[in-house]
Design goal:
Elements: H1 25-32, E1 39-42, H2 48-53, H3 56-61, E2 65-69, H4 73-85, E3 88-92, E4 99-100, H5 103-107, E5 111-116
Parallel strand pairs: 1-2
Antiparallel strand pairs: 2-5, 3-4, 3-5
Length: about 120
């Protein structure tokens, strides 16, 4: 198992780029009729928007609970935009039962749980 040091959101510099073939979660599940997850952990170093965009069908249809590591202010805005549109509420994992309702609050949190209202 490898680990890349740094974060896209923080503008970290990388000496080498590695191209990795990827597949959206929607394509993975819906293409072959696999069972959709009921829990998803998202920790992608600042590219949360692309990951959530790639699972919009699953978010709309199956409403899994999400655990998300948010990397910075822009990432927080992106996460909030997609998930509020999908009727998710966002909660802090560092402070007990705190509902996050705007991008400023979300950008101050690093660890978030998102639950669908459905």
């Amino acid at each position: 198992m490898g680990r890349v040091k740094g974060s896209k959101e923080l503008g970290d510099y990388f000496e080498k780029e590695i191209v990795v073939k990827s597949l959206s979660l929607d394509d993975f599940v819906f293409a072959d009729g696999k069972q959709a997850p009921n829990l998803v952990k998202v920790d992608i170093e600042g590219d949360e928007y692309r990951a959530l965009s790639g699972m919009e069908g699953i978010l709309s249809t199956y409403h899994p609970t999400l655990f998300i590591e948010v990397h910075g202010e822009k990432s927080g805005r992106d996460v909030l935009e997609i998930l509020t549109r999908k009727n998710y509420s966002l909660h802090s994992l560092r402070r007990e039962k705190v509902l996050l309702s705007n991008d400023r609050e979300l950008s101050q949190e690093k660890y978030v749980m998102a639950k669908s209202a459905k």
